[in-house]
Amino acid sequence: MSTDAAEFEIEAIALCDQVRQESSGKLILIGLYNDIIMVQNLPTPLQFTVVPLVRVHKAGPFEVTVELRDQQGNSMLPQKISATGGYTGEEGRAQWMPLPLPPFQINLEGKYDVWVEFLGSAKRALTFDIRRAQPVVQMKKEAGAVH
Q1: What is the pTM of this model?
Q2: How many domains, the chain?
Q3: pLDDT in tens, 67-98
Q4: 104-106 and 99-100 as β-strands: parallel, antiparallel, unpaired?
Q5: What is the DSSP string of 53-85?
Q6: In a domain, 146, yes or no
Q7: Percent of the chain having pLDDT more than 70?
Q8: CATH code for the domain of 39
């Protein structure tokens, strides 16, 4: 492994509930979110796995951080999440890198940002919108009613 830091490019970021890896190496993303996340109640607890798609330009050691920020730029997590590692595989490949977040609470509707940064290399944000789901009204069918 090179002693120089790895160089990455973040091509995309996915947000999901959970990631599982099969013995073949295939990742299964469970509960994949769109850019609008509907919740029944506010405040509500949430927990995500952030999954950046990373293009490796140069192998080597790396440090990655993840932050979750509200509309005013305030951190939603008790601390910045960080991890270190080393990439020794083929350069030029794109890889999904699951990064689980601890539970957090959303208090308000609106836009939130997830920031992923490979220190000294790449930084990218994913913006998503939290909205309160409209209640579903169901009509009760009365016995003997004609429709």
Answers
A1: 0.84
A2: 1
A3: 999 999 999 998 889 999 998 888 999 999 99
A4: unpaired
A5: EEEEEE-EEEEEEEEEE-TTS-BSSSS-EEEEE
A6: no
A7: 92
A8: 2.60.40.2550
